[in-house]
Design a protein that fits this description.
3-stranded antiparallel sheet, 2 domains, 11 helices, mainly alpha, two-stranded antiparallel sheet, 9 strands
């Protein structure tokens, strides 16, 4: 059996500014604490309140308390790192870094239909629209919304946690607007990212990343050399077969098939016209409208096929 224990929290709702001031609280300090706490929930704990509207936050004994935990969001360590990388990429105006972060962050992506060059170009265009913004002034809620729009068009599915983060950030920024109107959660998140480790730790992480990438590159070169040697041996023995798949080739093959079908029908139509004309000149006695019977039906068949081809072309244009 399970027992759900709930605590009654008595305090001052943050929307009651008069009571907060009367109790000696500084509204600016409350706003800063809420922002810093929310950034900590997202980036450090990966467990955050996804609906932080004013009715769900109260102040008790100098502490900000969240209530009504019906909608909570979670970020795995990898997702937290990916989220930080997204913010860093935007700050650095690095579309390639942003693309890699989103693809590694994605829960599903259809590589067979993703136009990677178009995806990169769309992200670069998106970053251009934020080029004049300092990271501390970013509208992260709008940024995440724009990013999700680009990923949807590119058939890249981001985890639902991104939606929760976006919704939570938009809500918390609206909540603290009356407390610290000149602050944004972007500046707090950026501070968290920058102080996530001391310079030595960051340098060590960078060195480890470089060594790991070098190891992967070396392994790739070794495998490539092995594959090349095996391919050459098979080629000299006449055993090498090539199996190629063209992405998007189905539509091309379908179009070619339609062209060939129309070309075949065109040849049949031409044959009917030519054959009927020759028979009309040298054919038998039975006639319809002065045209030999066989020639008449040949012309009629050619006419019907011609009308069908023209209609089909018009219908598919």
């Amino acid at each position: 059996e399970y027992c759900l224990v709930m605590e009654y929290v008595d305090g001052i709702p943050i929307y009651d500014h008069d009571r907060l001031r009367a109790a000696g609280y500084n509204l600016n300090e409350i706003g800063e604490k809420m922002l810093d706490n929310y950034a900590t929930q997202i980036l450090e704990h990966g467990f955050f309140h996804a609906d932080p509207h004013p009715g769900n936050i109260i102040v008790r004994n100098g502490r900000v308390v969240y209530i009504d935990l019906g909608i909570m969001g979670q970020l795995s360590p990898a997702e937290r790192a990916g989220f930080s990388t997204i913010i860093e990429a935007v700050g650095e105006q690095d579309a390639s870094k942003l693309k890699d972060a989103l693809l590694s962050f994605a829960v599903q992506r259809d590589n067979s239909v993703i136009d990677h060059s178009r995806f990169l170009a769309d992200l670069d265009l998106l970053l251009t629209s934020y080029a004049s913004c300092d990271v501390s002034n970013l509208d992260i809620g709008q940024l995440l919304s724009d990013v999700m729009g680009v990923t949807r068009m590119s058939r890249v599915t981001l985890p639902s946690s991104v939606t929760n983060v976006s919704r939570g950030i938009v809500t918390i920024e609206g909540t603290i607007a009356d407390f610290i109107p000149n602050e944004s959660i972007a500046s707090i998140i950026n501070d968290h990212i920058m102080r996530s480790g001391n310079p030595l730790d960051r340098a060590q992480d960078l060195a480890l990343d470089m060594l790991n990438e070098m190891r992967k590159a070396t392994e790739g070169i070794t495998r490539a050399a092995g594959y090349s040697g095996e391919a050459l041996r098979m080629l000299t023995r006449g055993q090498l077969k090539t199996n190629m798949e063209m992405l998007g080739s189905d539509s091309l093959i379908t179009s070619l098939a339609k062209i060939m079908n129309r070309l075949t029908i065109g040849i049949i139509i031409a044959g009917l016209f030519i054959g009927s004309s020759l028979y009309a000149r040298y054919g038998g006695e039975q006639a319809i409208f002065g045209i030999p019977l066989i020639s008449f039906f040949g012309f009629l068949g050619a006419f019907i096929l011609s009308v069908w081809v023209v209609f089909d072309i018009w219908r598919r244009r």
